[in-house]
Design a protein that fits this description.
The complex is a heterooctamer, with two copies of chain A, two copies of chain C, two copies of chain E and two copies of chain G. Chain A is α/β, with parallel strands linked by helices. Chain A has helices at about 10-20, 35-40, 60-70, 80-85, 90-95, 125, 145-160, 170-175, 190-200, 230-245, 265-280, 300-305, 325-330, 350-360, and strands at about 5, 25, 50-55, 75-80, 100-110, 115-120, 140, 165-170, 180, 215, 250-255, 260-265, 285-290, 295, 310-315, 340. Chain A contains 14 helices and 16 strands. In chain A, helix 1 (about 10-20) crosses helix 2 (about 35-40), helix 1 packs parallel to helix 7 (about 145-160) and helix 3 runs parallel beside helix 5 (about 90-95). Chain C is α/β, with parallel strands linked by helices. Chain C is globular, with a radius of gyration of 17 Å. The N and C termini of chain C lie far apart (about 40 Å). The chains are: A alpha/beta, C alpha/beta, E alpha+beta, G alpha/beta. Strand 10 (about 215) of chain B pairs parallel with strand 3 (about 65) of chain D, so a sheet runs across the interface. The complex binds thiamine diphosphate (2 copies), iron/sulfur cluster (6 copies) and magnesium ion (2 copies).
Chain lengths: ~375, ~375, ~240, ~240, ~70, ~70, ~180, ~180
Amino acid sequence: MEKVFMKGNEAIAEAAIRAGCRFFAGYPITPQNEIPEYMSRRMPQPDVRGIYLQGESETASAAMLYGAGATGIRAMTSSSSCGIALMSEVIAWMAGACLPVVICNMARGGPGIGSIQPSQQDYFMATKASGNGGFRMLVFAPSTIQEAVDMMYRAFDLAQKYMNPVYILSDGFTGAMMEPVVLPEMRSEEFLAAERKKNEAWAATGRKGAARSHQIGAGQRPGFPRAPLEQKNKADWEMYESWKVNEVEYENYKIEDAELIITSYGVSARIARSAVDMLRKEGYKVGMIRPIKVHPFPEIAYEQLDYNKLRGILSVEMSIPPLFYYDVEAVVRKRTPIATCLRSGGEIIERSAIIEAAKKLYGDK
Amino acid sequence: MEKVFMKGNEAIAEAAIRAGCRFFAGYPITPQNEIPEYMSRRMPQPDVRGIYLQGESETASAAMLYGAGATGIRAMTSSSSCGIALMSEVIAWMAGACLPVVICNMARGGPGIGSIQPSQQDYFMATKASGNGGFRMLVFAPSTIQEAVDMMYRAFDLAQKYMNPVYILSDGFTGAMMEPVVLPEMRSEEFLAAERKKNEAWAATGRKGAARSHQIGAGQRPGFPRAPLEQKNKADWEMYESWKVNEVEYENYKIEDAELIITSYGVSARIARSAVDMLRKEGYKVGMIRPIKVHPFPEIAYEQLDYNKLRGILSVEMSIPPLFYYDVEAVVRKRTPIATCLRSGGEIIERSAIIEAAKKLYGDK
Amino acid sequence: MEKIYSRPIGLKKSINGYCPGCLHSAAGKLIMSVLEEFDLLERCTQVDGVGCSANNHTSMDVDSIGSPHGRPCAVASAVKRISPETVVYTYQGDGDLASIGLAETMMAANRGDNITVFFINNANYGMTGGQMAPTTLMDMKTSTTPYGRHAQEHGYPMHMCEVLNALTAPSYIARVTCIDAANVRKARAAVKEAFQHQLDGKGFSFVEFVSNCPTNWGLSPIESLKFIKEKMLPEYPLGEFRNR
Amino acid sequence: MEKIYSRPIGLKKSINGYCPGCLHSAAGKLIMSVLEEFDLLERCTQVDGVGCSANNHTSMDVDSIGSPHGRPCAVASAVKRISPETVVYTYQGDGDLASIGLAETMMAANRGDNITVFFINNANYGMTGGQMAPTTLMDMKTSTTPYGRHAQEHGYPMHMCEVLNALTAPSYIARVTCIDAANVRKARAAVKEAFQHQLDGKGFSFVEFVSNCPTNWGLSPIESLKFIKEKMLPEYPLGEFRNR
Amino acid sequence: MPKIEIESEYCKSCLFCVEACPKKVIGTTSAVNSKGYQYAVAINPDACVGCAICATVCPDAAIEVYK
Amino acid sequence: MPKIEIESEYCKSCLFCVEACPKKVIGTTSAVNSKGYQYAVAINPDACVGCAICATVCPDAAIEVYK
Amino acid sequence: MENSILIGGFGGQGVMIFGQLLCYTAAETTDKYVTYFPSYSMEKRGGTANCYVTISDEPIGAPKAEMTDYVVALNSLAMNKFVNNVYSGGTMFINSSVCTEKPDRTDITFVEVPASDVAREIGDSRVTNLCMIGAFIAYTDILPPEKVLATAFKKLGAKHPEFNALNEAAFKRGMEIGKAAKAKK
Amino acid sequence: MENSILIGGFGGQGVMIFGQLLCYTAAETTDKYVTYFPSYSMEKRGGTANCYVTISDEPIGAPKAEMTDYVVALNSLAMNKFVNNVYSGGTMFINSSVCTEKPDRTDITFVEVPASDVAREIGDSRVTNLCMIGAFIAYTDILPPEKVLATAFKKLGAKHPEFNALNEAAFKRGMEIGKAAKAKK
Ligand SMILES: Cc1ncc(C[n+]2csc(CCOP(=O)(O)OP(=O)(O)O)c2C)c(N)n1
Ligand SMILES: Cc1ncc(C[n+]2csc(CCOP(=O)(O)OP(=O)(O)O)c2C)c(N)n1
Ligand code: SF4
Ligand code: SF4
Ligand code: SF4
Ligand code: SF4
Ligand code: SF4
Ligand code: SF4
Ligand SMILES: [Mg+2]
Ligand SMILES: [Mg+2]
């Protein structure tokens, strides 16, 4: 397929459309504005015929997405950090109502309005609590534009498969930069129509002779009769547990003989990877573990390490306080020292700082 | 001091007022309505002369609290689960702006609207991510009305001390039940005036001849000149780390000779405690670790256990999927088996179920 | 013998969860009855707000979406744009529509989304125990205005028909009540007109029901009707505000 | 020789962050100038919305609170009730005030909170790159209405003065612009009047500035003034809507 | 002869129909339904003229009218 | 004699004053300030009548007027 | 000693008042630990309403007891729903005016109180609950009857002193019924 | 081989276009890895605008390089801010029309391009950046000049074909300056 040089945000938007996204609602916020802007241009085009709807706020945009989800169409929203926080209640509703939607967070510095510069300070919000009630989502963390595009494409299928929102945790860096990217194929009208048809088994777009009227609501499984909330909580839990088996995704990079593991995700991992390369050139036996999805957290990746061989793990993220670090710490269980290399508040992590921190942890050589 | 038989919500509201709370903004939501209702009656009374303001939503209520925090007055809001989720963005702003406010979550079932019945499904939201940007708060988890009252009283001092929102994670059970309670003393007008006076060093209520105008905003420390966001993130992190030393609170109950530890918090721990008593009567050597604050998590309590002696830990909470459990798991580091006893969605955990689960984990006796 | 008045078939064959004499039931009954007349029961989606209206989905047998509190109009706008062949309407209380959801309501109206909005104004938050709503009458005591609603502190009752009438896009705006048979008939006509506007693609249609909350008003059902007549209607005059 | 026109002392001695010719600067200048005249610089609190107004706190030397996007009116209501001796005003863009913050704006107005609200209507979201706002003119192209604003899809421009005028509580409502010296003088008089209402405890006062966004409109500063005159003012007529 | 049928299980005893019926056809007895409501009954059925006022005002759609 | 003073560091070269001055007192030169703006200058100072129109329209409060 | 009581009925039948009168009396006149936990269905009226009361010499762990020593059922719905919540050997008080078919459980005692009839006789259906309380107190001796009645006067009579006489009459009639039942056991 | 370039100036000076022309050309006419990263200050106009371009044979780890091989400064603010971001041995291109005082660093090469003057001569200040690109390309040989110019025609000429001639003139003049500088080195 042809490579095109595109801005991250636009590539992500186009990938969503090719995955069959036919409804987008959002509210402006830097650094993801090119996503809604692209959608507003692209959705009306004849090969898409989708809907772009600008919400009066993130709350409203999320509610629009909730409505769209209830119709069984492929739908998404995107925002950034504080805008995503403002969606929390509705995100919880979408999880509660089992709606197959996609949410994209092009994260920036925080807390609150923070800065418009890229950051990874929303790790906990994305992986642990995007709202009330203890629900969880699959959380993709792209490291490059290409990966963001591929994840976005897959996200819609996974949302549909699990009947649960899927979350893309990216950042303003990946959204604002440009890079050549291979775009996935446009999903055919037939495919999309067939998927939509399937969803008619539960979509709330008019009963149309169905045996039971369809009711969508937080706490109800679409298409199933009303049941006690606890029952739904349990079913969700089972699904989350199944993800630990079926949905774990991570990358091992040069870890075979590594004495030091750098671990990182998303844009930081991209930078960390080049630090690994440079350290290798200098003779350091360094490798990297990179969660591709940050939820479910790839515990197995860290379990498989030979801790006798390790000098330590360097956890790299653009967040102060460190957040990703806690998941790493929990799985490493003090079997090797863990150091951190951190930036925050919109500052981008420097390769040189990673290299320095890695050398320090590596010790004499 | 005199004991009064009071509803949890009302006792909490009165305790807040006695601690010096002179501003309350909130929006109705079950099961905490008696808090705003009590405030609306009590605030105008001559011994209080405070302000009750009903927000047009939780978002607005939180924004009102943000404004109140910026004036240096003692102020709080309360809500429940999905209502708290709707406050996420503003809570992050309050943490970002270092405002000494108090937030009370009388939690109910989730996700989303869930149920109006009590639940502990907001554990992650409270302890890990109440909004964007990776900020944290002290999180109290009262087990009885008396404790809720005492915590509420202390919360205002701690908010002031750390210049950070303090969070009370309670539940609809504790709010709706009634129990005799000893109310703390009313803070004197002089004390409150002096505290308010101190806050004039940064409060944004008109410059009044100050050397520098006061600017409140997410990312700025009140009273300090503007600095890069990362610097503030770092200072916050240091504060969070200091909490691990100075703010850990937990209770050990009958653990000296215990071979099985039940661990639980909040209302579940109240029920679990009586299970411990009943199990002890039957001769089981069972004890309980109960985090009193759930953030910072009392790791030390679990570190101090003699794992050679233990048959296991039973983690009890009213949340499916379990959430509190993960913090327990992370600190226990596989040194003993952990089992769970769970309810969710508004169902209240039964003492008998705890006893049964404990016996099972205890093994033959 | 001919049946000249039937229970609408859109209503389930069970008692609903509203309190005795609550005119929520009356509004729901009219909506079901008009949908039946227009043969829309199989091609409509009801978007419920949070409030006592949460009872609807247990009693009305149409496709429905329970929406986050205050957001029905945003939800409905999306549904209607995606599925224009579906008749989409919201059903919301005054807390839901005029307080937490005010922005969503007004912006859907301002966009002229082709949806119908039913607004049940009972001057308080019924579901949560009768707190002050934007529509609470002057001097009225509620659980959060224990000393009464006073202008200085709480401002004035919110008139949603009048406010929406300040926007360009809405095509139908009316205020009705169900306190007696004559008014019920007028209310039904307004519901019909509103749906007709949607069927004709005219955009945003809005019907406010001046309603009651006997439970939280502390009145018997019959007394509550009297209260509507004597106190609510002078503040909330009935009529068609716009019909284009 | 006497200085007959001075830079307001409330403005810091540095260039502010607004684009060349942006009338945000003009509004801020007038506010500072009136506060100076009333000797309020030391006893006022400015509540800034999120938008290009985020530049204010770097250029205005008064106590200020940067508020969550859309929430200035809620923030200001709290501050004013707690500290009635402080003159409290908000400064908000059209995205902030009329879209995400519409409920907060209207409810503060409806409560009659004794605050002053300055509303900078530049028909788009300036700060984020010129997306459609509720106030965007018909047919206007913005970064999210690449094919123009069309009634069917996007509804009509939102007239905040007119909408607020449908409420009972507000005491002063006016729309002004700063496109020439005569209008600047009228605008200043409106700012003065608004603050006077607050000082007199009359409740909610509101001044809308019909403004520009040369950057996102893709016009030179001078052209943008012409655009205001020819396109904005016919849609947003100037004047006092209420003064009681 | 016109008549009404009241489905007692839907009735909540609001008494709107009792109040509204011009012919005083409807009243209550000591009987309660499964929800505990003293449901309305046509205590004076012969007076019914089939005007359907009762059914029109019954919020709970408990009354059907035949003519 | 009336005069204006333009603080060049505040000027953003919007040219509102240039356009508004009835006496064509103000213009720009090739000089730029530290932000890169070709700031306004009184190129024809003697014509100034001190009407303060320029200062009134200057959004950036860069102009002060003496009379 | 711990006494746990579950009271169930329709909203409006005075279920909550029943529980609260016990609790206030215990809390204000004894040194015991007392908890009260209400539980409503969604509807305000017409729905079910239950409450749990525990009065104990030791701190109370589970204010909403799964099994209780006593259940008081003001209607048949509550009776059928909660009959299995009584500990074996415990007692169930039923409003026999409206609960016609007694459930068949033989390991507990049923105390039948025609409370609605009594109330009707006294002239106000709203005193049904006071009659039940009288019977309950007389049968169980959990609290001194005069203290309970005093609490009723204080809490209910404050707003509506005109009810005091009716309440007292109902309470006394209930006590007689309770005493009689106790005598039989 | 990896070439990293940092371009800095005021918003409106065509900084972003500079970077994008390099990137599009590299991405569309070579097999290299290419990244582009823009960085604005808050203000849309008048503020600073920078972008980072990396063109490499291998995957690019850090699209916002801390140190770059080349820095292009369109104004003195950018020059002073970024002079220490050039690797020792690297090259800094400065718009000498507006950057008067050259910073003192002796381990890097300065290429002075009077781009604003050239643009003024050509008659449109907006072609300053094209002149800089010409000089940059001629000096560095990173990409074939004709390809870069073709990209400029494609990307900039699409909307405003009337600019093609001006752009070309500026680019050519820049190339001459760049070539001359290269000859000197
Ligand atoms: C975000 C959120 N806030 C608050 C609530 C609690 N709540 C449920 S119903 C309701 C009030 C409903 O009042 P209204 O809309 O007037 O409906 P009514 O019950 O009076 O018909 C509220 C505040 C909620 N469910 N979600
Ligand atoms: C919750 C939230 N959503 C979105 C944003 C992003 N944002 C910043 S400024 C702005 C638009 C401001 O537009 P307007 O209020 O019209 O002000 P202008 O810049 O036009 O003066 C937006 C949407 C934000 N900061 N917070
Ligand atoms: S609480 Fe009020 S509004 Fe709700 S069902 Fe009862 S009477 Fe109706
Ligand atoms: S972007 Fe528009 S509104 Fe913002 S400062 Fe520039 S011109 Fe003004
Ligand atoms: S139909 Fe008319 S007359 Fe007959 S019962 Fe009903 S109201 Fe009375
Ligand atoms: S109006 Fe309907 S619900 Fe009310 S009493 Fe009559 S039949 Fe029963
Ligand atoms: S004061 Fe009047 S005449 Fe003088 S420069 Fe200004 S506008 Fe021109
Ligand atoms: S009006 Fe002010 S900012 Fe604009 S050119 Fe004149 S002096 Fe400069
Ligand atoms: Mg209501
Ligand atoms: Mg704007």
